[in-house]
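Follow-up to my post from last week.
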Amino acid sequence: MTNQTDYPKIVAASENALIVYFASTPDKAVSAQITAVQHIISKELGCDILDLVPSFNSLLVIYNALNTDHFVVARVIENACCTARQTQFQQTQGKLVTLPVYYAEESGPDLLTIANDKNISVDEVIKRHSAKEYQVYSIGFAPGFAYLGEVDPMIAAPRLQTPRKKVPKGAVAIADQQTAVYPSQSPGGWNIIGLCPTPLFDLSQTPAMPFNVGDRVCFKPIDKAEYLAQGGELHDI
Amino acid sequence: MTSEALQAFKILDAGMLSLIQDAGRFGQAKLGLSTGGPADEHAFMWANKLLGNPANSATLEITMGGLHLESLSDCQISITGAHCSVSLNNAEISQWRSHNVARGDKLSINFASAGCRLYLAVGGGFSVTPQLNSAATVVREGIGGINGKPLKANQILNRFATQNQPLLGLYREDIPDYSKNLQLRLIKGYQYDRFDRLQKARFFGNRYTVSQLADRMGYRLTGPAIEFPTRTMLSEGIALGAVQIPADGQPIVLGKDRQTIGGYPKIGSVLSLDLSKLMQTTAGATVEFTPVTIEEAHNQLHLARAKFNNTTMQRYTE
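User reply:
Got it. Predicted complex:
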């Protein structure tokens, strides 16, 4: 058990980056804290910040080392963490985005496997996946790929032994207690349970993604007709 | 940039891998986007500086050479980076200096003899429609450059209009030699404290060899395996130059096209000044890591910038 007073912990990452660890394990409060600290740092340091990379329990702060230095940045981070705690930022919730999903065996080839492994019906898998509200913990792996957590332990499933060479755009998938929607076609080892017709990464749109780290996502089951009507496509998976 | 765009070159042969690169696409990690940008920042910065271009101007990064162009307007160019035979209308020209090019001239960049990446800059900078404020091409993401892809034969490259500048070049002693045996300064960071003493001694006490798996995303090294106590780590943001230690213990040094987050333990990050040199090496080159603190790294960056700003350049009349 790690003592919570060890956090936040600021560690050097590179010549121009510090990484801040907020807790040993992620949860909604940690995620909200990261979002809040991120906003304060950006406001305080402006253009001296080159990028901020939030993830499950950490925030990587990349700065312009020719304009500022790690002493200044570390101090801003410490103050930001302190402000975030005092102002109850942790209670503020990110916006809620609802994504429609066509859950079926033709769109979700791993639905049946999960149902069989857990000894529940396919309908029960769908019900449990669409009943929860998920936190956007991290975005990465590929442009627009968001790690959402946590799924009901009853439908948690390990990654496939052999990843698929082609996972279609819009595939809604589960890996352990995480779930995600593949924003574009790519290789992937997550269990596919459905397809989402909403584009999740489109550079011609502003914003390019419907949500950010710290926001919340829920899934609404739709039928095949609605999926196709919303622009969804069916591929051989 | 409000100046008009002109046609600069027609691509006759694009070579193995030629990419449009500016300094990189910053501030987009929230979308999961890599920064991209020049693998060798040092050579990229000089290519623009020799022409008096803004520091973030788009250049071509040419891997291994093999690029052939025909000029579509009178302009000025500079070529830095890997040592290579370069010719203008079949007459050999020097690298690390600017040249006048006339409409109709043919420019040939042959194959690199030392180093592996060249930078071709044009006066005013190449002009493409930026995506999220940058021209940098990241092929894996299909973003930047022309349609997010490597350049192809028959494409037309545009540039911004600009005034001609006096011709300038570097003195021989300021031109890098692209050695195949490097010392890489490593800023101790990330999980550094969680590697035990034996592993650190092994990492800093041995030479590692650049493997075939070496590209803009990262350089996989081979050598004595480094162990890390745990395999379960949450994914976290990856800095430029971060040295990942995957399960097989063989270090991977991450470059400009790295993914934004990853879950492997990291022992620290290579100083960008040395990363530029590593990115000029190919399979078989050897490296040795030397630990430095973030304070020492900071000083080195400032000294390097002062040197870049104050290097005396040679003037040429033609």
